[in-house]
Description:
By secondary structure, this protein is mainly α. The longest helix has 14 residues, at 192-205. It starts with a helix and ends with a helix. It is 72% helix and 0% strand. It has a domain at 155-254. It has 28 helices and no strands.
Amino acid sequence: MVGTSLVDMYAKCGNVVDSRKMFDYMPGRSVVTWNAMIGGYLRIEDTRSASVLFERMSTRNAVTWIEMIDGFAKRRDTVTARRLFNRVPPELKNVVTWTVMVDGYTSNGDMEAAREIFEEMPDRNFFAWSSMISGYCKKGDVKEAKAIFERIPVRNLVNWNSLISGYAQNGFCEGALDAFGEMQAEGFEPDEVTIASVLSACAQLGLLDAGKEIHCAIHRKGILINVFVLNGLVDMYAKCGELAIARLVFERTDEKNIACWNAMISGYATHGQCKEALEIFGEMESSNRRPDDITFLSVLSACVHGGFVNEGMEIFSKMEKYSLKPSIKHYGCLVDLMARAGRLKEAYDLIKRMPMKPNDTVWTAMLGACRIYLDMEMTDEIEKEGTLNAKMMTANESLCILLSHIYAASNRWEKAERMRTLMINEGMQKTPGCSSLIPSSTNTILGC
């Protein structure tokens, strides 16, 4: 008993070498000892050693099979996991074994295989249902996720959280709030997972009043305030423009993770408080928190809106320091920053040096600056080199509109008319603006 405990302790602490020494030293080993050693190997993703031990076992129990199936699935080897699943003796294939196989497929995005196993399950637990809902939501198939949810005979909070979270993550924010209301109507009290998802929905919709009600409900209902709830509050207040409250919540957060820093920086950048965004970025670096690609995108966006060209170029160069590879979005921000400042030649040279093909967003930024500064020479160079291909032009009406305006402003009426004719022939229309309406009361939706 003591030997097994030591094997398990060393394995769970990541010290597989000492765990194996203890395992080999033991004169007699129970199936629990074997499982502990196999679990240790799988925890460090050493599936080969785990498999060798597994094949040597004279007796296996349900836990043995579950450990092996789950271990291979987590390494994205669902083929081996399925092979093991098919070998499980019928008397040992319980609901957990089935669920682990389903979750292995959903975690790896293979919903077709997951559905096959799911439909064959003789019994289903709440985790199997939630795994399928989450799996479909990760693939963006919210309709199928809702269909699975509707089939659950007896729902629990985890099932509701899977649906609400899936709605919010896919931008179906009204659906998330509706589901939240239905959940409460069925007598379920929200937990910190529910609250984080609902705050995200409020943030995306700009529902400040609803977000404030949720904030009040957190304290009133005694809901655990963890890092995800705090991130949700900062993000909600920041996106809704209540930057003072967002900053207050941010400053009161002891353990700020990357999402918390990004939410605060992005909030300042989005609402034009660019110096504050750069200050928070500076604080982040001083606290030895590593920024990620989203951080840099938000800070570069702040530089664009604030016209901070030198700062933006310096920040862009810092990405290499953090071993981050700039994406097309980062390059797009830098191009936009230079172009808006009138440094069109530098911006165009950057486009030509980019390691990836520029997209229509990059060209829209470039042409927008050409229009502002009436730089026909640059416009002609872009057109002459054929960088704006026909496919890109017909896919984005903004490029056609910009070129039409540039040509018209320089009295090149024939070219302007050609752009307008292209738009008509392709059935393109200028995308109309829209406004959002925030309801005066959300008590009915939230049930708070």
